[in-house]
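[step 3/7] fold_predict: job queued, chain A
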Amino acid sequence: MADLKQLMDNEVFMAFSSYATIVLMKMMFMSTATAFQRLTNKVFSNPEDCASFGKGENAKKYLRTDEKVERVRRAHLNDIENIVPFLGIGLLYSLSGPDLSTALLHFRIFVGARIYHTIAYLTPLPQPNRALAFFGGFGVTLSMAYRLLRSRLYL
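[step 4/7] structure written:
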């Protein structure tokens, strides 16, 4: 079993850790962006969240959906669906001894694709911008999984 010093000396693992931190911070930003949209547009999904804006029937008018809030929320959900698999597969991949330049290419494309996906979603840019960004990141995760299965795991 590798000790902490060995992990810290593993350049691929440290690169993965850096890029994983970036996408996790981006995902955290999306939750605050959703909250910002909810507060700005006074749109809430829970009755207790409306208490600051009114009582009784007056507060119920804030229990609604809004396209701006939903767009940010959907972008955040898409992040969760794509970043979580990247973190798991990327961790295993980074510990499997890949070439540093190949690993960096995988990590950079994924992070760039996720950032571009969010920009394309929130702006909104016309399709196929968002789809290309999605498939770019998804393809990177599949590529890491394939390389991991091919080189290190027993099937």
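[step 5/7] annotate
The helical segments are 4-9, 11-41, 57-60, 67-94, 100-122, 129-151.
The chain has one domain: 4-39+66-151.
exit 0
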